[in-house]
Amino acid sequence: MEYKDLISKALEAREKAYVPYSNFKVGAAILVEDGTIYSGCNIENASFGATNCAERTAIFKAVSEGYESIKAIAIVGDTSTYTYPCGICRQVISEFADGTIPVILAKNNEDFIVKTLDDVLPGAFTKKDLNK
């Protein structure tokens, strides 16, 4: 899989982030089953609980268009270090992906690392646990 397309879309989305409180921009891009890429940015709110992360923005856009299977996700936050998804985002990713999907943590198109969802969310509680 070519990760640079996903990273580029995440970088583009990062520039659209609405972050008047933290000034911490994050962009994410997900690849769905038919090859479509959905991107999202973080969107802050004066009522901090109403803030939405970039990863969830991208996922919710895809789900609202009828996709329920993530094949990969790229995340770009602080371009001087790798930004991991928060706990809530990790849980939401696990709702729509299996533990083997690539989670691409990027500073830019040339500097990135690849983990799996199982690496960043070991022992995830998933819908499979509800069906036991």
Walk me through this protein's architecture.
The protein has 132 residues and is an alpha+beta fold. It has helices at 4-14, 54-64, 87-95, 117-120, 127-130; strands at residues 27-32, 37-41, 70-76, 102-106, 112-116. The protein has one domain (4-130): Cytidine Deaminase, domain 2 (3-Layer(aba) Sandwich), CATH 3.40.140.10. The protein is 30% helix and 21% strand. The N and C termini lie far apart (34 Å). Its cofactor is Zn(2+).
Short description:
By secondary structure, this protein is an alpha+beta fold. The protein is 30% helix and 21% strand.
At CATH level 3, the topology is Cytidine Deaminase, domain 2
Per CATH, the superfamily is: Cytidine Deaminase, domain 2
CATH hierarchy: architecture: 3-Layer(aba) Sandwich
Number of DSSP E strands: 5
Q: Within the largest sheet, what's the order of strands?
A: 2-1-3-4-5
Structural class: alpha+beta
Query: What is the residue-mean pLDDT, rounded to a whole number?
Result: 96
What general outline do the C-alpha atoms trace? globular
Distance between the termini: 34 Å
SSE series: HEEHEHEEHH
Q: β content, as a range?
A: 15-25%
How many DSSP helices? 5
- List segments where confidence is low: pLDDT < 50 over at least 5 consecutive residues: none
* Major beta sheet summary: 5 strands, mixed
